[in-house]
Amino acid sequence: MSPKITTELLKQLRQVMKSPKYVQEPVQAYIVPSGDAHQSEYIAPCDCRRAFISGFDGSAGTAIITEQHAAMWTDGRYFLQAANQMDNNWTLMKMGLKDTPTQEDWLVSVLPEGSKVGVDPFIIPADQWKRMSKVLRSAGHDLVPIKENLIDTIWTDCPQRPCKPLITLDLNYTGVSWRDKIVALRSKMAERKVLWFVVTALDEVAWLFNLRGSDVEYNPVFFAYAVIGMNTIRLFIDGDRMTDPAVREHLQLDSTLEPEFKIQVMPYGSILTELQAVGASLSPKEKVWLSDKASYALTEAVPKAYQYLTPYTPICIAKAVKNASETEGMRRAHVKDAVALCELFNWLEKEVPKGTVTEITAADKAEEFRSQQKDFVELSFATISSTGPNGAIIHYKPVPETNRTLSVNEIYLLDSGAQYKDGTTDVTRTMHFGTPSAYEKECFTYVLKGHIAVSAAIFPNGTKGHLLDSFARSALWDCGLDYLHGTGHGVGSFLNVHEGPCGISYKTFADEPLEAGMIVSDEPGYYEDGSFGIRIENVVLVIPAETKYNFKNRGSLTFEPLTLVPIQTKMIDVSLLTQKELNWVNDYHQKCREVIGAELERQGRLEALQWLIRETEPLIRVLIYFFSVCFSWVVSVFISAGKRKKKKRKGKQVSVRFRFSFCMCHPQK
Amino acid sequence: MSPKITTELLKQLRQVMKSPKYVQEPVQAYIVPSGDAHQSEYIAPCDCRRAFISGFDGSAGTAIITEQHAAMWTDGRYFLQAANQMDNNWTLMKMGLKDTPTQEDWLVSVLPEGSKVGVDPFIIPADQWKRMSKVLRSAGHDLVPIKENLIDTIWTDCPQRPCKPLITLDLNYTGVSWRDKIVALRSKMAERKVLWFVVTALDEVAWLFNLRGSDVEYNPVFFAYAVIGMNTIRLFIDGDRMTDPAVREHLQLDSTLEPEFKIQVMPYGSILTELQAVGASLSPKEKVWLSDKASYALTEAVPKAYQYLTPYTPICIAKAVKNASETEGMRRAHVKDAVALCELFNWLEKEVPKGTVTEITAADKAEEFRSQQKDFVELSFATISSTGPNGAIIHYKPVPETNRTLSVNEIYLLDSGAQYKDGTTDVTRTMHFGTPSAYEKECFTYVLKGHIAVSAAIFPNGTKGHLLDSFARSALWDCGLDYLHGTGHGVGSFLNVHEGPCGISYKTFADEPLEAGMIVSDEPGYYEDGSFGIRIENVVLVIPAETKYNFKNRGSLTFEPLTLVPIQTKMIDVSLLTQKELNWVNDYHQKCREVIGAELERQGRLEALQWLIRETEPLIRVLIYFFSVCFSWVVSVFISAGKRKKKKRKGKQVSVRFRFSFCMCHPQK
User: Distances in Å between the alpha carbon of A609 and those of A565, A567, A587, A601, A605?
Assistant: First the structure.
């Protein structure tokens, strides 16, 4: 992949940074954050401003352009990708490494005295504004909001903002009606004594109204805001979407409703003025609740004294704990997803040796198999289909320039998922279609041990996910290996594949405690730059655990894998597994065989079924097995030696040997 | 222990809260934090205001008194103690439990509209002021500084502030002269472009000047502040302490020095006005560096634009990484400490069955043995000597009312340590002088597994201690057990037994990454209210680790125990240990035997040496050993049966059996 040449663009941007047409006073630096006005992680093409200016199109990164420099901050998932996509105008700032300066510190170190730093106030979250603004101010600089987005002024062929039709979800999928969600929200508002709640995150709007859209690729959301009062509901949304009879019916727009459930539909662009009007109408002690990650523009629309900001909104927290209908939907989605992957891996096993499969065709084939499943909507993120050295680019997406042919000599990593109407999936499997090296197996097995350590962890109610992160790394650490990304993220229910407020990460973020019903991913990995990448990812459901002493009735939790796709046993060095880990793999494969086997059979996919059965054969310890057989043979020789005169039948020996080898292989059974 | 009756005191306090003599306007709430003007954890008697008003004298806790309520926030270590020491006027707020409100939220929920909340600005840290003030303001209340401490106004017999002689430490102990420390500090100041640095923590003043004091029990510190400029050094300290010739010589007060190393000695009480003068003299861009935990009063003395606040000061970070002289000192101190404890445990083993030893006499005996060691100064904290149910009170200190006699029927927990001129110790051992129950052994073994998991952990350079906390809990969690305190804290070098900026805790605090040379404690526990307490604590040194792949030259770390006191094997259920854990215990005991044995012998403490040798016998797996003996016996019977005719000697069988049992006991050897 060749980097984007940005010399001319940066020149233009530096001109508008000084142009009185766009800025009151020249700005010496301009910040281009990753997100959109809703602080989304995945964004519509019209919002990909950071990618436009830099060439780097990973899902996380912030660009800062000064008169002399252009710098890009991104995290470990994207170090290689960003380095490949950006030209020499750019400096890569590797977040998470000890010596990398923060954006604020870097600005202070490079800016001339008394500089102005510009940013679009709709794109920067309020908490980030506050942090940056404070540091800059204390160094004698100023962070200033620039109304017109400066990237947009130089982006001549910027695409239109999408406005696609909506999907309504009934109770079978959501478990709770939008009216009941509003009631629950208002009760949380009453608890905190706030009068208004502003819904700014797109997935929160979608979840609240039991609607889905397709404005942003992979994320079934639509551009909208909502402002919920104790007696009013305002939905800010554009286009003809509200003329769809199904949507009108779903939202009861034409019914006679109690006034507090009557939805007022307003233009998307009117949110700022409407919110300013709300702000202006407040009396002392009346509060407006916003996420502290809402945009600086919307947050500032409410006078400071009336703001009630929290890191997570009550919708975010409610959405994370899946109800029975959502959990069942997620289970169904994962069964269908596993069927598709069994088909894929069976196909790859036959096709890869022919040398005709590339990363792109493999990804396409995965999508093809998924799209054959009921209620398939779209993929849940860009498929990471990577072989050999490409596997080490953590969030790699194959493009023609980098597309590699799968072979029997290289590791293949597939991280993919889909949106089904009943749930969202996200699964990574790492396969070898030839003979993996001892080192590759060793690394794979450490990653697997980490995966199992999290998946099988038991922990008290109230534990935050970040406390489990090191379990995933311990086996790698013991040998001096590690991976530069978190271990897990929340997963939406037919919603964003990444969602808060829970996760499993070494980064100390304000995650909410794990609760039964939450769904997260468990995805440790290991990456050898220039050689290969390994990741094993399941989506897991938080469930109550049974323990001997049950934390004095505080209760305990563990995980149940929803993903049921075999983990390639060929890649496992069994001698590195403990008996408990070996049992976990065998139990997991047994469940895959039962649940996915039944569905493959029902769908008549018999070849994939054969593949599944082969791939889920129980593991045994070769060495112990070997010794146990030898040992029992020695014993049987002595038995026969001692009892030869009694002329016993040979059958007796066989039965002794079998019983004995069974004991040695399953000491914990 | 009977609670302190506080009805009259609270009445008086509520009166002064409204008295125009002390407050400009009446305050509806008054906050009594734990610390002193230096935000010390351990404080002088004259600063024990929270204990005076409430009766609760644990090391951590904040009292808030309103017109109607009196509430006390403390953490899991002190729930039982606080409940026992406070009368019914007080509500205990258990920090760390899910439903416990923060102090701010609680204030908002109980205060009448537009209330004023008072606090001594010298006692409240600036960061806490900021947080509380913000929440209170947003709820329509005000946090106001009250110059005169209101507790002091009703505390008629308040003790004098101590002012004891100083100890000077030479290079053999400190490794670095105070001049070189000042040079290093100024280079850090230059790096951050600050002109002034204010030293507010007592241990930081002591460390910087290589001086020690005894103003605060257990903490070898003295009341002082320092303000370091690029060319000036000001030390704020009271009394005749600067007339001591040794101190004058050490600080070179009477020598002709380069002006930038000339120390100006000023009265302790003049810090505020001097700092205000510094603040007033600053030009734009000139900064004053303070800890964000410095008092609100001192922080506010510097105009906001000139403040440079960080969670940890450069002194705090430099102090945490011990140099070779300090590490060697710590090793020596721990050898002496172990000698004292071997003597103690040997003595207890003989005396406890007689029924003559109480928690207090045991603690006294421990102090007696320690005081016999070279360079002993004092204890490093109040000895926690607790048996039976008292052991469940995590930071219990025996007093006559609660004093229990040690017996052969109850678990005994001793958490103790000392200050030696060459180092600080802190060790916990849990013993049974009779026969522990299976349940007690089970719990002890889980705690031991956690202790080993941390002590033997290998992790990459740059890892923060809080990421290791769950390792200590995993074995307990698996069975539904846990403990409500962190796993480890930084330990000073002949300084405070608790120090930042590193630690091992589930609480997400901004700890600095662990570095080779840092010293922390490793102390998981388990507490059964009303029955027993278990804790196993070593002080451990962070050292480089050798790993197979060494994190691509990022390097890796692990711990080396400095504490070398046997862990009672009688309490261990060997069947619950993995082979790796068993080897750890045996290797640890081997080292105790070698290092402490040699010192016991050198000191002629031969009875304690015998005890040490007995207590450090290697563990073996009884069950496996038993089976292996049986098995080899069976094999030998067959051998003899098969070969009886050849009339071999019996010696052959014996050698087979021994070789076999060795293999089974040491499969990893």
Answer: 12, 15, 18, 7, 6
For residue B328, the surrounding DSSP H or E stretch is helix B324-351
Name every residue whose Cβ is closer than 8 Å to that of residue A553 and which is 6 or more positions away in sequence: none
Per-chain mean pLDDT for chain B? 92
Residue to test with chain B: of A142, A304, A474, A511, most B Cβ within 10 A? A474
Tokens found for residue A30: 């301009």
Contacts of B340 (CB under 8 A, 6+ apart): B366, B369, B370, B372, B373, B418
pLDDT at A91: 97
pLDDT in tens, A529-568: 999 999 999 999 999 999 999 888 889 999 999 999 999 9
Write out pLDDT tens, residues B72-97.
999 988 898 899 999 999 999 999 88
Interface of A with B in 238-257 (CB under 8 A): none
Is the pLDDT assigned to residue B664 strictly greater than 50? no
The reply to whether B649 touches chain A by the CB within 8 Å rule is no
Contact between A43 and A202 (Cβ < 8 Å): no
Contact A417, A444 (CB under 8 A): no
DSSP designation for B174: H
Put simply, whether B434 touches A (Cβ < 8 Å) is: no
**Encoded tokens for B432:** 């049974």
**Which residues have CB under 8 Å from B126's CB, separation 6+?**
B290, B292, B293, B294, B295, B296, B298, B299, B300, B309
Over residues A369-379, the pLDDT tens digits come to: 999 999 999 99
Q: Report the pLDDT value the prediction gives residue B663, as an integer from 0 to 100.
A: 34
pLDDT of residue A511: 84
N residues, chain A: 669
Cβ <8 Å between A482 and B551: yes
> What spatial distance separates the first Cα and last Cα of chain B, rounded to whole Å?
53
Instruction: Say if CB A72 and CB A93 are below 8 A apart.
Output: yes
pLDDT surpasses 90 at A666: no
Task: Say how many CB pairs under 8 Å bridge A and B.
Answer: 106
User: Which B residues, 618 through 647, put their C-beta within 8 Å of a C-beta on chain A?
Assistant: 635, 638-639, 641-642
Span A401-427, mean pLDDT?
97
pLDDT surpassing 90 at residue B148? yes
- pLDDT for A660: 35
B167-168 and B116-119 strand pairing: unpaired
Contact criterion met (CB below 8 Å) for A534 and A444: yes
Which structure tokens are listed for B313?
């000061």
A470 with B468: Cβ contact below 8 A:
yes
Give Cβ neighbours of residue A16 (< 8 Å, ≥ 6 apart): A22, A23, A150, A153, A154
Strand order in the sheet with A556-561: A459-460, A556-561, A538-545, A519-522, A488-490, A499-504
Q: Residue B459 pairs with which residues in a beta bridge?
A: B557
CB contact at 8 A, A160 and A186? no
What is the length of chain B?
669
pTM, whole model, 2 decimals? 0.88
Residue A509 structure tokens = 């973020």
**A385 in Cβ contact with A362 (< 8 Å):** yes
CB A160 within 8 A of CB A239: no
What are the Cα distances from residue B282, in Å, to A535, A538, B275, B472? 55, 58, 11, 49
How high is the pLDDT of residue A661?
A: 34
pLDDT of residue B511: 84
- Start-to-end CA distance of chain A, whole Å, equals 53
Does A470 sit within 8 Å of B470, measured CB to CB? yes
What does the pLDDT read at residue A138? 84
Residues 6+ apart with CB under 8 A from B124: B31, B33, B132, B295, B296
**Secondary structure class of B2 (helix, strand, coil):** coil
Considering only alpha carbons, which residue of chain B is nearest residue A477? B459
